[in-house]
């Protein structure tokens, strides 16, 4: 019995949750899920005013394009409005708060769009960098990293 007690004393102690972090994480997930959904809706409805409230003036889109250069905001805007999105939705959304002013949001986006006679559906893994400037919730996305998802990860 003494040996068992000594073994128990040498086990690492893991920090225990105080029950306060889960509601904050859930609150952030709900908040950023709503922002990301507003973004999808604005793009689908081709609403530049709504997108301007979400995307910062310094916004860049980063992809795996061979040249490795980011796509500037103006060029990205033209691409968004030049595409006929039929449906889109998010799943597996996660939020990591780096500070009260910086959050990283990642998710998988499924988008169905019409480019030819046959609609096409694609899955993308997206990472957005959100910055809160000013007072209150004045969050704007400064950077978006997008990569197409293929294979097992794209299963819904």
Helical stretch tally: 4
* Major beta sheet, strand line-up: 2-1-6-5-4-3
Largest sheet: 6 strands, mixed
Percent of residues in β-strands: 35-45%
Mean pLDDT: 81
Shape: globular
Pattern of helices and strands: HHHEEHEEEE
Radius of gyration: 20 Å
Low-confidence stretches: 1-21
Structural class: alpha+beta
The proportion of residues forming helix, as a percent range, comes to 25-40%
How would you describe this protein?
The chain has 156 residues and is an alpha+beta fold. The chain contains four helices and six strands; from the N terminus they run αααββαββββ. A six-stranded mixed sheet has the order 2-1-6-5-4-3. The protein starts with a helix and ends in an 8-residue tail after the last strand. The N terminus is likely disordered.
């Amino acid at each position: 019995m003494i040996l068992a007690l000594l073994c128990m004393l040498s086990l690492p102690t893991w920090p225990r949750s105080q029950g306060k972090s889960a509601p904050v994480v859930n609150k952030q997930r709900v908040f950023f899920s709503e922002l990301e959904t507003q973004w999808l809706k604005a793009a689908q409805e081709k609403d530049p005013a709504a997108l301007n409230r979400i995307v910062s003036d310094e916004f860049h889109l980063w992809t795996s394009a061979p040249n490795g250069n980011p796509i500037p905001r103006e060029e990205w805007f033209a691409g968004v409005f030049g595409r006929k999105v039929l449906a889109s939705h998010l799943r597996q959304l996660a939020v990591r708060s780096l500070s009260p002013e910086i959050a990283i949001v990642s998710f998988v986006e499924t988008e169905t769009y019409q480019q030819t006679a046959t609609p096409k559906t694609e899955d993308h893994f997206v990472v957005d960098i959100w910055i809160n400037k000013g007072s209150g919730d004045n969050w704007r996305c400064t950077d978006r990293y997008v990569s197409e998802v293929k294979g097992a990860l794209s299963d819904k």
